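Dear Dr. V.,

Thank you for agreeing to look over these. As mentioned in my earlier message, I'm a first-year student in the group and I'm still getting used to reading structure tokens, so any feedback on how I've presented them would be very welcome. I ran two proteins. I've put each sequence directly above its structure. The first is here:
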Amino acid sequence: MKKRTGLLALLLTLALTLAACGGEKYEAQAINEATDVCVICKMAVKDDQYATQIVTKDGQSLKFDDIGCLNTWKTENGTDTIGAAFVRDYNSKQWLRYEKAYYVYDSSIQTPMAYGIVSFEKEEDAQSFIDEQGAGKLMTADDLANHSWEVNRDMMNMDGHGHSDSSGDAGMDGHMSDGENGHSAEEEGHDDGGQAS
């Protein structure tokens, strides 16, 4: 009887270990400001609260300077190859799973490519941001699936930054609002044919 109980315990432990290791674990990679560029707009990706990334099922890390660029990639490439998508908490800059974050959208929120969406780990932090700004709509990842993904063209025209049909000026600690943190092709060593000024 003791042998049987010991064998059952060993098999149960083995089964639990295999179950824990069975699923793929995807982790966000650190941003390297010296080399990382947005897969969509080719602007430098800053190590800030606007950075997002997709880790593909084969382990590639695709980095984006704005959640709108991440959405553009998903629209163009589908979601079948995505292992996990990550955004950052606006306050702590910690990586969060895209589907677990809370979002605030308002066209007046200045983000690198003027999509006007910021992300938070906690719903109450997102609501506090809305209360402080006096504007914004609280959203989830499910809500983003039906979002219009419009660009604030007024912001786009302020600095002349952009890619294809979208762009913007970042504020609220965004990285296109000042020369020190701006996405400049010359500063970043990119020649993107007029995509940056």
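The second protein is here, in the same arrangement:
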Amino acid sequence: MATRKRSTTTAKGKERLDIRTVATAAGVSVATVSRVMNKVPTVDPQLSKRVWATVKKLGYIPNTQARALVSGRSKLLGVIISDITNPFFPELIQGFEDKAIDVGYETLIGSTNYDLQRMEHCVQRMLERQVEGVAVMTFGIEEPLLERLSSEGIPMVFIDVAPRKKNISVIHVNYDQGIREAVQHLAALGHRRIGFITGPPRLHSANARLNAFLSATERVGIRVPEMCIFHGDHTAEGGSRGVEHLLSIKQPPTAIMCSNDMSALGAMHAISRAGLSIPADISLIGFDDIQLTEYVLPPLTTIRMSGRDIAASAVYALLNPGIAPKQVETNLVVRQTTGVPSKQTPGSKPAARKSADKA
């Protein structure tokens, strides 16, 4: 009885391509194709060009996992973020992936949604896929879980703070500069009652932004009562609740600063819902400068913290362990949500008022 020949076709009837197919079509050895795929620098340039032309012609897709097993290199960098629904993070991921591709790496993304179990799942995936470095862009530390990555000798990079361990880098953000510019901008317009909507107190970045705000207001001689600080959560809903609180106090602020742009967008909605105008009744400033802020009406004045700059520093730090990454700067971007303070208390509705952006 004749033995059955093993099929080399897929379920759709197409011939399954492998490295041997490429080698035969290119007229080279399997070893040469392997070296070309792994970008070994000693391969003859003409041979390499021929192999890549054959790969393109055949539409061959390399099995990167198999290559990683053979070479011991996954050419994969991980990035862990906290909230994929916040537009700041997709912009950061795009910048990270662009930089990674430039240096021949792919990106594995994990989102924790501020959940410890999700963080554990992210770490497990990073280990299973043998990432060569992990950027922890959550603006906070989950040290017990990340100890697993550290124990494997995998380079990591954090924002603001990090465990003191080998192969761990920190990207420092200069929050003070942008927030100081924002407070000085409001003070120059004549604002003396300024409210602040913070982020989650567990996040170092949120606390750093609040402290920078309090330091900047003190520097220009503005006292900020505790009731003018609302402890939010970096969501649009939190920004909306913050405005409701700030408008309810006896002397509402004439200007509000938010710890991130999502809070500011929620604040814009709440201000409009209260029948007030921006900036005629209340001036508003966000933080991050996500792309959306340029297109809302009115365009949001905000503090730019470039996600692409953070991404570039993160990729550099992962590929150059032990070299301190460049500090990320912040700066004020003035658009149309800030103006001179109204002579009326926010919440009152006089018969007529000149728009502050025309004053």
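From my reading of the second output: The chain has three domains: 19-62, 71-171, 174-300+335-346+354-358. The radius of gyration is 27 Å. Does that match how you would interpret it?

Kind regards,
E.
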